[in-house]
Design brief:
The chain is about 35% helix and about 25% strand. The longest helix has 21 residues. The termini are far apart. The protein has two domains: about 45 residues, no CATH class; about 140 residues, GTP Cyclohydrolase I, domain 2. By secondary structure, the chain is of the alpha+beta class. The chain contains six helices and seven strands, in the order ααββββαβαβαβα. It is elongated. A five-stranded mixed beta sheet has the order 5-2-3-6-7, with helices on both faces. It has a two-stranded antiparallel sheet with strand order 1-4. α3 packs antiparallel against α4. The structure holds zinc ion. Zinc ion (ZN) binds next to loops. The site of zinc ion has 6 residues, from loops.
């Protein structure tokens, strides 16, 4: 049986700054070799000379920076007013890269939750989504992981709903080359799964009224 390795899961663990620097040098060297193997005169082409450095920096500092950083610290607040409706945030922009082709995934996340004891600052929802997205991913796993993180943080919540709509450049620019398609995934828990409750319907209405 294959080991259950999650998409984009790094084997590196926690790295010191020095170790990250070593990784960066190594990645840069190998990306230069990769371009050379593809037949580009990377050592002399003035536009490509610095490309290995730029691409490595882009992956490590931006697109896949979540690989090298722990989940952002999330402060929670007591649900002092006992608010029992849905807390909703939509249009949370995410940029990731697919594990299969290393092509960008660009989309929006919509989150709804019904608080138990705690609520979290709205911008923290963005931070969690962006941290989860900033590694090589599959949209399915991204959805599950964002949901999992929220379940952990929102103590005794009554339900958490995550909905992602994203475009995958690997579908748009290669293979079937269908640039109008997008993918939708969702993960629901608690009252959002209760058929007797209107929470799911209300959440989807919120998503639809917001949808970009
Ligand atoms: Zn792909």
């Amino acid at each position: 049986m294959e080991k259950n390795i999650l998409s984009g899961q790094s084997f590196l663990g926690k790295l010191t700054d020095e170790e990250i620097e070593k990784r960066r040098d190594s990645a840069e060297y190998h990306f230069r070799e990769f371009l050379y193997a593809l037949g580009y005169d990377v050592h002399n082409d003035p536009n490509m000379k610095e490309t290995p450095r730029r691409v490595t920096k882009m992956y490590m500092k931006e697109l896949f920076s979540g690989t090298y950083q722990p989940c952002p610290k999330i402060t929670t607040f007591p649900n002092s007013g006992n608010y029992s409706g849905i807390v909703f945030e939509g249009g949370i922009k995410i940029i990731s890269g697919c594990s299969h082709h290393f092509m960008p995934i660009i989309g929006y996340v919509y989150i709804g939750y019904i608080a138990g004891d705690t609520i979290i600052g709205l911008s923290k929802l963005n931070r969690i989504c962006q941290w989860v997205a900033s590694r090589p991913s599959l949209q399915e796993e991204m959805t599950t992981k964002i949901h999992e993180e929220l379940e952990k943080i929102l103590q005794n919540n009554k339900g958490v709903a995550v909905y992602i709509k994203a475009s995958h450049l690997c579908v748009q620019a290669r293979g079937v080359k269908d640039y109008d398609t997008s993918m939708i995934t969702s993960k629901l828990s608690g009252v959002f799964l209760d058929k007797e409750d209107t929470a799911k319907e209300e959440f989807l209405q919120m998503v639809n009224s917001f949808k970009k």
